[in-house]
Design brief:
The complex is a heterodimer. Chain A is α+β, with helices and mostly antiparallel strands. Chain A folds into 3 domains: 215 residues, 3-Layer(aba) Sandwich (Rossmann fold); 89 residues, Elongation Factor Tu (Ef-tu), domain 3, CATH 2.40.30.10; 105 residues, Elongation Factor Tu (Ef-tu), domain 3 (Beta Barrel), CATH 2.40.30. In chain A, strand 2 and strand 3 form a beta hairpin. By secondary structure, chain B is α/β, with parallel strands linked by helices. Chain B has 2 domains: 196 residues, HUPs (Rossmann fold); 79 residues, no CATH class. In chain B, the strands form 2 sheets. A 6-stranded mixed beta sheet of chain B has the order 3-2-1-4-6-5, sandwiched between helices. Chain B starts with 6 loop residues before the first helix and ends with a helix. Classes of the chains: A alpha+beta, B alpha/beta. The interface between A and B is large, with 81 and 70 residues.
Chain lengths: 429, 300
């Protein structure tokens, strides 16, 4: 029982092209970890029969919308959950079609790791590169390259090694640090939950054991403390007449009572008087905890401000360089005004220029083409109406990310990762 | 224990973040309170999010008129304890006003009619955000939901045209007349909810624990018997020891034959269960896309 209460959480995303067997793999993980219930299985069996599938099509477990089941494709990011006695897992399952880069970026933005599927018969294809680029762009800590359909190549070590060698070069180019290679057959379950006896040459863990043991979130607490103020708690009661606390979720690092802090953008200094978690007072809090911080001085703090340790100041600037993934069918408009949402802050921003676009199939930069359409990735420069208190995305995924909102439609049209300006930046493929 | 948060702590922290985001981004939010365990957990999280201040938005209960009386008692006690304002939208009133038409026949249920009353209530009080306890693991259409789910001026959900949701940045901007449904428990599973109730020692309506009740079996699902329900000739009322795994409108809430007296018993029972909690919900069994269709029309 108690083992259930203190499990860790791992969030991962899955990417693969249309027939790589991604949904089958997820179905397999859910099924073999006993996370699929009888009524779900019956519904899938019935649907498989109706669609004329000979075997139970596990993909139908994850394709939730009517149009998806009819067309046999995945339209949107779907979230799936399963748990083992060691961990709870959240899968963001993203479709693999060319036009859905934006969904992959969305799914990867909250993930700690990515599983990228390749079909053993086809090896590395254009889409594999695209998926890998997204994993690199979003700075996922781990990439698992799952070489699927090994049953169709007689579980050949040679085939596996060839793919591995080819991918190693891509991983190097993309600066992917932790890549793990696994030969699997999602359909039959080889090396998914249990080690396969058909791959005696493979010495690594099966996929599930690997997912249970990947180190997570260690790095988040080691980063500099960033506390974006979300909401000011001021009870209107007599009992708590003078209570004033700044509520928020620690984006990174840790803070403790007594820490000397600076409030940005005003640069006011104070010290932490108390850290409250509802009716409990804590000595210390760490990311990603939601708490309420009280300060020793009566200073002016409101939503959108950021509390940081005085010796760990972030960058504060209104000129921001971004790698942006465009999410909307209306192309990016240079010179136009957009709403920028960054942590709990909201400002206006002008798009100043497009430096280059990324051809993520060829992994090349394209200079001169400034038309940024849906699913394009580009390096752009913006100027905001107020300075943003930020870090580079490479240093901090929360304070280094922002979204761009269309001023007229209010749709989320761009996902931005803050990078050094072109002159200084090192992250160029 | 290492520095890392447990999964329950991380889920709690995420949900509190979402609830505070709603209070900060919207002018007039409300929490949809059904009296079920998920909305009870929501109320608990809202309490923690704003303590020591009172929860800065009212609770809205869409009353089908076919509620277990234990639910209503629990609701009224909770409202008294937390000091929040309660607004009740009545399905009966919607029917009386001709806005909704009562279903007839053996499977008549007011579950679907709630949509009319819900949208009318949101409109009447000009709520611009409605917090609900729905979880993505409940149902396959819900697996595609956002935390901040946009609804057009007709209250409709367009699953193919949802706003991308990246990192922990939520975009609650909307045009006049549109609103948002907010699902802070999106990433929780049924088991997470029960473990959290145990961890936080949250009081629940007695319906969730084993008790004896008049029930009858229909299509393999046990339903609690109330006099307004129409039995088929082959159906027979019997007394059994049961508990509710979910609580909704009486007409469509399947009950579980169970001897579970405590939260520990319930967690063991769920951990070894082979049927989902919505497996007993006849509202989902109407068709393969029943939930998707109801959600598109403005259901929870």
């Amino acid at each position: 029982m108690s083992g259930y209460l203190d499990m860790e959480l791992l969030r991962f995303t899955t990417a693969g092209s249309v027939d790589d067997g991604k949904s089958t793999l997820i179905g397999r993980l859910l099924y073999d970890s006993k996370s699929i219930f009888e009524d779900q299985m019956e519904a899938v069996k019935a649907a498989s029969e109706r669609l004329g599938n000979e075997e139970v099509n596990l993909a139908l477990l994850t394709d939730g919308l009517r149009a998806e089941r009819e067309q046999g494709i995945t339209i949107d990011v779907a979230y799936r959950y399963f748990a083992t006695p060691k961990r709870k897992f959240i899968i963001s399952d993203t479709p693999g079609h060319i036009e859905y880069t934006r969904n992959m970026v969305t799914g990867a933005s909250t993930a700690d790791a990515a599983i990228i599927l390749v079909d053993a018969r086809n090896g590395i294809i254009e889409q594999t590169k695209r998926h890998s680029y997204v994993a690199s762009l979003l700075r996922l800590d781990y990439v698992v390259l799952a070489v699927n359909k090994m049953d169709l190549v007689d579980f050949s070590e040679e085939v596996f090694n060839k793919i591995k060698t080819e991918y190693t070069a891509i991983a190097e180019k993309l600066n992917l640090k932790n890549v793990i290679y696994i030969p699997i057959s999602a359909r039959d379950g080889d090396n998914v939950v249990n080690a396969s006896d058909k791959t005696p040459w493979y010495e690594g863990q099966p996929l599930l054991s690997l997912l249970e043991s990947l180190p997570v979130k260690e790095s988040l607490e080691k980063l500099k403390a960033r506390f974006p103020v979300q909401y000011v708690i001021r009870p209107q009661s007599d009992e708590f007449h003078d209570y004033r606390a700044y509520a928020g979720r620690l984006a990174s690092g840790r803070v403790k009572v007594g820490d000397k802090v600076t409030i940005l953008p005003s640069y006011t200094e104070s010290t932490i008087k108390a850290i409250d978690e509802a009716d409990k007072s804590l000595e210390e809090a760490y990311a990603p905890q939601s708490v309420a911080i009280r300060l020793n001085d009566n200073v002016d703090v409101s939503r959108g401000d950021m509390i940081v340790k005085s010796d760990e100041l972030p960058r504060v600037d209104a000129h921001i360089s971004l790698l942006v993934c465009w999410l909307n069918h209306r192309p990016l408009s240079i010179g136009a005004k957009y709403i920028i949402r960054h942590t709990t802050d909201e400002v206006f921003g002008f798009i100043k220029d497009v430096y280059y676009k990324v051809n993520i199939n060829e992994l090349e930069n394209v200079i001169g083409d400034k038309v940024v359409k849906m699913n394009d990735i580009a390096h752009i420069k913006i100027k905001t109406s107020k300075p943003l208190k930020h870090d580079l995305y490479a240093e901090n995924r929360i304070t280094g990310s922002l979204v761009i909102i269309d001023e007229a439609t209010f749709e989320t049209v761009g996902a931005g990762m803050i990078v050094d300006s072109l002159e200084e930046q090192t992250y160029v493929i | 224990m290492s520095d890392r948060l447990t999964h329950l702590k991380e889920l709690e922290s995420e949900s509190i973040y979402v609830i505070r985001e709603v209070a900060a981004q919207f002018e007039k939010p409300a929490l949809l309170f059904s009296g079920g365990k998920d909305s009870i957990v929501m109320a608990h999280l809202a309490y923690k999010a704003f303590y020591p201040a009172t929860i800065p938005f009212p609770f809205v209960h869409i009353d089908t008129g076919h509620n277990f009386e234990e639910t209503i008692t629990y609701r009224d006690d909770l409202v008294k304890k937390t000091g929040v304002k309660l607004i009740v939208g009545s399905v009966q009133e919607s029917i009386d006003a001709g806005r909704a038409v009562e279903e007839t026949g053996y499977n008549a249920s007011r579950n679907k009619l709630q949509t009319v009353t819900l949208l009318d209530t949101l409109e009447k009080y000009k709520f611009d955000a409605a917090l609900g306890g729905a979880r993505r693991d409940e149902e396959k259409a819900r697996a595609k939901e956002r935390f901040f789910s946009h609804r057009d001026e007709f209250g409709q959900w367009d699953p193919k045209n949802q706003r991308p949701e990246l990192w922990n940045i939520f975009n609650g901007k909307k045009q006049l007349g549109e609103h948002f449904r907010i699902f802070p428990l999106s990433n929780w599973t049924e088991l997470d909810v029960w473990q959290y109730i145990l961890q936080e020692n949250i009081e629940l309506p007695s319906l969730y624990y084993t008790h004896e009740r008049e029930v009858f079996e229909r299509d393999g699902v046990w339903l609690a018997y109330y006099p307004f329900m129409q039995l088929k000739p082959t159906e027979e009322i019997v007394r059994k020891r049961i508990r509710c795994r979910t609580i909704g409108d009486i007409t469509c809430t399947g009950v579980t034959i169970s001897e579970a007296h405590s939260l520990e018993d319930i967690i063991d029972e769920i951990a070894s269960s082979r049927v989902t909690e919505r497996g007993g919900r006849s509202d989902d069994k109407r068709s393969e896309a029943a939930m998707e269709d109801r959600k598109k029309a403005g259901y929870f």
